[in-house]
Amino acid sequence: MKETETPLDAYWMGFTANRQFKKNPRLFKRAEGMHFWTENNDKILDGIAGLWCVNAGHCRPRIIESIQKQAAELDYAPAFQAGHPLAFELADRLVSYLPGDINHAFFTNSGSESVETALKIALAYHQAKGNCRRTRLIGREKGYHGVNFGGMSVGGLPANRKMFPNLLSGVDHLPHTHDIKKNAFSRGVPEHGIEKADVLTDLLTLHDPGSVAAVIVEPVAGSAGVILPPQGYLKRLREICDQSLFQYEMSLNGALVSKMK
Ligand SMILES: Cc1ncc(COP(=O)(O)O)c(C=O)c1O
Q1: Nearest atom in ligand 1 to 51's CA
Q2: Residue 49 and residue 91 in one domain
Q3: Both 185 and 212 in a single domain?
Q4: Is the Cβ atom of 112 under 6 angstroms away from ligand 1?
Q5: CA-to-CA distance for 39 and 29, rounded, in angstroms?
Q6: Is the pLDDT confidence value at 168 over 70?
Q7: Is 61 left (phi over 0), alpha (psi -120 to 50) or beta?
Q8: Which structural domain range is residue 28 located in?
Q9: Are residues 159 and 235 located together in one domain of the fold?
Q10: pTM listed for this prediction
Q11: Ligand 1 center to 254 CA (angstroms)
Q12: Using one digit for the tens of pLDDT, what is the confidence trace for 37-91?
């Protein structure tokens, strides 16, 4: 074993005060349903379902059996130029749950990779359509879109960005919607703040709507403190996107062309 400061030192933990944690570690040894058990056998309620990713509960027997069965039958098949029948079945099922005409699924390994891929798809889509000026991305203050360069660029967490002055260029940000003075103690979706969506119109005007490739926001901001969207806010953003991107395409092509999806 290499020499390290403490026995836990080799594992460099993300988004964690490492020295502090390793002096007083919180380690779980098992989980079931909505609880963890620590090394001292203390039972802990898992209020955030892992990291919002164990929503069916921990160690569900049906899920364990499926994982075990699949690992024994076919553990991995390449995803380039070859495939695994279940990946196609999963994609079919997934798109059947999705709204409107969303009819394709692209699988990735993490949320961060999904965000990078979504941004790349938006940029490549406009290139393929001949709209080469559409390269600008619009994110939001307090937004978290993962740990990669694209996601951090459209994200709005100052602490994550400050070490990396060379993030993607051509990115602007909407204001965040956290308004504690007006929305404190609101139940459900807060009443105030729909006007924050209208800043998108200002940004589109400032930069020219024809230069914008995509707008990305979390429906519920997670990492900055679980901020619910104000009433009507997401619908308004959607309307502005539809309207502006649509109008631009019309004037550019001089004919009615399909809406950007
Ligand atoms: C909105 C959003 N985007 C991206 C990510 C990054 O996902 P991952 O940690 O799987 O890379 C997260 C993670 O919490 C997220 O909440």
Answers
A1: 14
A2: no
A3: yes
A4: yes
A5: 6
A6: yes
A7: alpha
A8: 21-73
A9: yes
A10: 0.90
A11: 40
A12: 999 999 999 999 998 899 999 999 999 999 999 999 999 999 999 999 999 999 9
